[in-house]
Amino acid sequence: MNEPIWPGPDDKLVVTEMIQNPDSPHWKQCYIWVSRLVGQADISENLREDIVQEAMVSITRGLPGFHFNSRLTTWLTTVTGNRKKDAFRRQSKQIRQAETLLDELQSPADNGESLEFTTLLTTEEEVILREELHDALHGLQEVLEHRSDRDKAIILMRLLDERKYSEIAKSFGIREQKVMYLCKNIQKLLRKVCQRQPPG
Predict the structure, then answer these.
(1) Surface-to-core class of residue 31, CB atoms within 10 Å of its CB (0-12 exposed, 13-18 middle, 19+ buried)
(2) What one-character DSSP code corresponds to residue 118?
(3) pLDDT, tens digit, for every residue of 110-138?
(4) Which residues, in sequence order, are CB contacts of 179 under 8 Å at separation 6+?
């Protein structure tokens, strides 16, 4: 005879035990249930685990307020779905911010204002610095032109925000080694592009 599928027919019994006993086996079953639900989505393993953890935190906090207006599994599905949406929104926001920053680099506003740090430089040094910055940004634009939105976001987070490889990897749900490989590869391409540019 097959075991009943968790949580079984009596939601009140399960919820009461989970609230009263943090070590109840039902918590492990709940974790497995949420993991299976998140596992149906086509996302990376790291991002999947983050969503599961965030969902379990929300379930732990919200379970005492569950009023049995629906099945427990329906509520769990809603909570997990919301955490999944939150994760996707964060990732989309990071990509949009990277795209905005890239647009600003590709089309810098020429309003005649000097960069704040250039007040410490001579006119000649300022001209040289601006030329070097222009070449570097032009090279970055060329290197990133045909890259995916995710790759652009990763590179800009590393080169401009100076974020750690581990932080970037966690943000996008990919392995740290992949971030390192991508960044080093882009940096090599950027050096080649800048080296072949004729002097101004």
Answers:
(1) middle
(2) G
(3) 444 434 444 444 555 555 555 555 555 66
(4) 154, 158, 165, 168, 169, 172
Phi, psi of 83 (to 5 degrees): -65, -35
The residue type at 59: I
CATH of 11-90, one of 1.10.1740.10, 3.40.50.720, 3.90.110.10, 3.40.50.790: 1.10.1740.10
Summarised one tens digit per residue, pLDDT across range 1-39 is 455 689 999 999 999 999 999 999 999 999 999 999 998
| Residues 6+ away with beta carbon under 8 Å from 173 | 43, 44, 45, 46, 47, 48, 50, 91
CATH number of the domain located at residue range(s) 115-196 in this protein:
1.10.10.10
Q: Which of 166, 158, 149, 148 minimizes the C-alpha distance to 183? A: 158
Residue with tokens 């882009």: 186
C-alpha 99/C-alpha 92 separation (Å) is 10
Global confidence as pTM? 0.53
Token pair for 37? 């639900």
Phi, psi of 34 (to 5 degrees): -65, -40
* Exposed/middle/buried for residue 110 (C-beta within 10 Å: 0-12, 13-18, 19+): exposed
* 112 φψ region: left (φ > 0), alpha (ψ -120 to 50), beta (else): left
CB 140 within 8 A of CB 159: yes
